[in-house]
Amino acid sequence: MGDVERWTPPDLPARWRVHASPFVGRRAEFRALEEAWAAVESGVAQVVFLEGEAGAGKSRFIAEAGRILHAHGAAVLLGSCVAEGGAPYQPFVGPVEALTSAVLAGELAEVPGDGGTALAQLLGTLVGTGAAIGSSRPPTTRELHAALVTALRAAARERPVLVVLEDLHWAGATSLELLSHVARHTGDVRLLCLASYRSTAPDRSAPLAGAVAELHRLEGVSRVRLSPLTEGDVAEYVTARTGAPPDRARAVAPLLLERTGGNPFYLREVVRDLVDAGGDGLAHLGSGELPTPQTVRDLYAGRLGRLGTGTRRLVEVAAVVGDEVPVELLARVAGQDVDETLEGLGQAEMAGLLRNLAGDGSRVAFDHVLCRQSVLDLMPRSDLLHLHVDVARALEAGPSSVPNRVERIAHHYARAEVLGHRREAVHYLTEAASVARARLAHHEAGQALARAAELADDDADRDDLRLLAAESFRAAGDFAAACDLDRAVAAQGSQRDRLRAAVAFEGATWRIGDLGFEAADLLATTLGQADVAETDPLRIAAVASLGRALTFTGDFDRGREVCARAIELATASGDRATLAHAVECSIIMNVRPRTAPEQRPRCEELVRLGTAGGESEWVFNGASILALVAHLVGDAEQYERSHADLVRAAAASGEPFFQVQSSCFEWVRAFVRGDLARAEAIGEELLQAHRVGTRAELTERLSVQTFVLRREQGRLGEVAPFISGNESVEQHWTPGLLALYVELGLREPARRVLDWLVEQDLARFVASPTWPATIAFVTEAAVWLRHRPAADRLREAAEEYAGHNLTVGPMLAAFGSADRYLGMLESTLGRPGAEGLLRSAIEMDGRMGAPLFVAYDAVALVEHLRRSGAGPTALEVARHDASARVGALHSPRLTASLERVVPPRRRADGLTPREVEVLRLLAQGLSNRALAEELFISENTVTNHVRSILMKTGVTNRTMASRYAAEHGLLDPGP
């Protein structure tokens, strides 16, 4: 815990400290906030989403909460979003700037050893106020996100931190990703993030709703909805605001509640107008009439109508400028000097339209966002459009240091495009995209470029912008948006642009596992229509992409032929980029034993090209496939070298897709070592990789990975209630359905599926990228059911993999040595080669550093030796070896596999092997919860085990049970 005097956080906003309007109600909401803050003070971070309709009082609630928590010693960091012209990461700009100042001033302890310079540079890059870190490469998104988490941790050591993010419904994709990262990586930080947003149409944000729903699954994340004020709240407000006696306030409260709907903002404005009418403001209500407008727009129309022409013009200009308005800019647009402008602003403030934001009068803002919107709605369209032009020109002529200057100019010109300002809008939208890309806000860059494309007059310019927008969306992981733009260009662009679009389209689809049929058709069509020389680099690139697309359709032979032709042409062209693309297309395919010898040198060539040209994408693609090839053939040294290369390349590229691919390799490394907890953590991170496709796309791609992890943890029983055993074979991925039946012990359903598989032509399964998983799953079913016809057919089809490893896709899941499965099939068929294959599997998995798979190999060997009638000595040696390997790991499925093969020996005390394991961990002082996490079972199951242990051993408590374990030599795991 740091010295609370060390860091002096920013002061509270002036508008939070003084309120002319009383605050009433919200007792339940504050109770929820108090509970969250109590958790924060105990060291558990909280995220509270505050939702409500426009005018529900979100900003006022936040202001009251901020004042209270500030008085309790919290550091309050305020950020907000604007409806238009906002920058990437906009709600975090305020908090990041405050943290950056603290880092540079040395006010935060435990920042990196360079005095925080690198951290401050990363934070500056995040919000566009500083340069990237001084290295040979730009920072990655992950580094920018981590920088904010590091700064928040350092700040929270000094004092509890309240981060306020207002109007999150206007936040962009990058802001939501950053919020998600912060929420997932600050669980043990004294941090409360209070984020407000509108939950009603038309402002309701679908991306935000999805992000909130996803985060709501986490511990410490809650939602608080601001409901309408009650009749009692309205009466309390009337008394506090007007001084009316409580009984009179209660008498008029029902009518006010009816007319305002309990909306705090509208209630405030209606009562304000009543007070301005004279007296205590309630005289008009005596007859049950309410002489005020019934819509917010009408209410403000009345106030604007009472202003002079010059003052009204100032208010209208301010509404066009934005949420917060520099007085100097307002004066320039209005054609006034500053003194004259200040006088008019004073009148607008008295009318309840504007308020002063700074003590020096340099900035003003509307009293409420609904006020600004009403002013805009009331303006004639022609006046509104011309004012947008005036504001854009004033910003152009003003200082370049104005925050979000480029984005704001782009917004104003785009709004006025019908007045002939499309060219200016396109220019500034393109500049805004460049600014966003520099801050790794690729989604916002794509949006700006797509909008520019809509406004471009020239067809060629429009297609260029669409292709650039698609490139940004691909970098952001929004492949659907990228593909839509590429399709549009491919349908109506010039011949060259159609080829460019088709190549780009294929480059997006293979990354999300698309089968390649649409990409192949599009490329074949555009190549057929394009009058482009065969030696043209663009045509060569399109041919290479066609080869890759054909491969993904399952037409491996034709795909290889087309890619080989593209490589030949690219080599002759002498163009390095064209050659790299052709080589890349030839290796991004299913790695098979028969193609590995061809792929290996091409991977090495792509890595060389990328290294020489400083192209991290080429290095990553080459190194990742080279790692797959090395893993396939069991070359452990090459695998480790390539893995190191791909990790470095993924970090250097900063592209989310490559970072996800790199994480898949890390997942496999954890899984094969038996570190299931680490594998689960990586898997959760992968499923939250919103920057790489939708969650549905990710879930589908990672489904095999998730399945094998859940079954290793013994958790597939969770889905048992939803499985009938009568599921349609045609409507599911058959091998996966079969594997599920096997794990749930459903013999007849499994036999039904296996019989169906035997009757089918296995060619379509062999051609699938999931063929290695099919080998594993069908083998386990055939062995379990002693299904000799299935074992015979599969043994022949899987022969290609003898001496190789089984892996699905770019390390989406691994199954270890294929020789284990071939040996299991041989054993089931009663053939003599089983033992040799199983011992080969032990050697291969051991060489590849996969103790989990070695243990399965050892168990399979024991099962074979028992089935084949091996001598007692050989069987005992194998049993002892398998028991030792299984005992060193904590896999419920693996333990169960061994117990099926080698029934546990009965102990005198009657303890089962699992109860001995529980007793051993209990003696180490683990709680029931810790035991459950260690063994991947529920706490209720642990409780039952402990109860059984006490009964069987005759002891009465956990302490005596620990002593029993020590006395009976149970503290060290035996064979």
Automatic annotation (TrEMBL):
Location of the HTH luxR-type domain: 904-969
Gene Ontology BP terms: regulation of DNA-templated transcription
This protein's UniProt keywords: ATP-binding, Nucleotide-binding
SMART domains: HTH_LUXR
InterPro entries the UniProt entry points to: AAA_16 (IPR041664), P-loop_NTPase (IPR027417), Sig_transdc_resp-reg_C-effctor (IPR016032), Tscrpt_reg_LuxR_C (IPR000792), WH-like_DNA-bd_sf (IPR036388)
Keyword GTP-binding: no
GO MF annotations in UniProt: adenylate cyclase activity; ATP binding; DNA binding
Nucleotide-binding keyword on record: yes
A Pfam match: AAA_16
One GO CC term on file: cytoplasm
PANTHER family: TESTICULAR SOLUBLE ADENYLYL CYCLASE (PTHR16305), TRANSCRIPTIONAL ACTIVATOR DOMAIN (PTHR16305:SF35)
Protein's UniProt name: LuxR family transcriptional regulator
